[in-house]
Amino acid sequence: MKENIKEYLIITLGVILVAVAIEYFYAPNNLAAGGVSGLAVVITHYVPSLNVGGITLFANIFLFILAFILVGGDFGFKTIYASFGLSILLWFIDKFLSPQALTTDLLLASIFGTIITAVGLAMIFNINASTGGTDILAKILNKYTNFNIGISLLCVDFIVTLMGALTFGADKGFYALLCVLFNGPLIDRLIAWVNQKKQITIISKKHKEIADFIINELKRGCTSLYGKDACSEKDRDVIYSILTKKEIEKVKEYIENVDEEAFFTIGAIDEVQGKGFLKVSGL
């Protein structure tokens, strides 16, 4: 229960960040940077009586209905929450806050809009949720063509960006295209950074105590490897473990307390699959 509350709080914060980027950087500067929100920016240019939030909400309802018909109901509640949460928040900001551009410089709007959007979406994607929109169109396109999800999403976003360029001019179209191209890789790097683990290799005469600390105090596994000192040719027990950043700090502190002569190396690990971490694909 506590974990679920935490996840929904993270999704909510991510949704707020994405909404801020759209309403205060993209929409006021006519940057149609892909997605349903980008399409909404184009539509509001032709129908000023509408707003980005209302169009996004209506579009997501339509897309979810279309997706249920064409690809089935393979959408979790967290995705539905994030999708409609974003749409409602956009509508609320449009209706009651009358948002103005925080900067009218297209380069600054593109940079900060992309960074804020990427941070928000990374938070949402890292909880295995999505904001719907063009993600749904990409799934539909993926089912009925040979395109994978990534290419399908890029195609849909490119079409939206092209519509923006035709509506607002080539300059704004190119800036919007840059937003789309940099958004995905930035999201990937942020998610990798958040989930990054550390590997530690330890050589110590107190190897048993250190292994016990990792197993019993941190509730993590570790492996005892056989090693030999190349100089003295004495046998050495080497401990190998993969831990989170916080756990690494605890192990370092413990090692310094029990064996000041211990030797250890620490390296970054981008992905770990297996017991206690991510599920192994195919199992």
Task: Walk me through the structure.
It holds the Pfam family YitT_membrane. There is one protein chain. With 283 residues, the chain is α+β, with helices and mostly antiparallel strands. It has 2 domains: 2-194, no CATH class; 197-269, 2-Layer Sandwich (Alpha-Beta Plaits). Helix content is 63%, strand content 10%. β2 (223-228) and β3 form a beta hairpin.
Question: Can you describe this structure in just a few lines?
Answer:
It is found in: Cell membrane. It comes from Clostridium baratii str. Sullivan. The protein is α+β, with helices and mostly antiparallel strands and 283 residues long.
Summed up, the domain count is: 2
Strand-pairing-aware structural class: alpha+beta
Largest sheet: 4 strands, antiparallel
Question: Can you tell me the overall shape?
Answer: elongated
Range of strand content: 5-15%
**Total count of helical runs of at least 4 residues:** 10
Sheet with the most strands: spatial strand order: 2-3-1-4
Contiguous runs where pLDDT drops below 50 for at least 5 residues: none
Mean pLDDT: 88
Number of strands: 4
What is the alpha-carbon Rg in Å? 24 Å
Query: Can you give the helix content as a percent range?
Result: 55-70%
- What sequence of helices (H) and strands (E) makes up the elements? HHHHHHHHEHEEHE
Task: Note the gap between the termini.
Answer: 26 Å
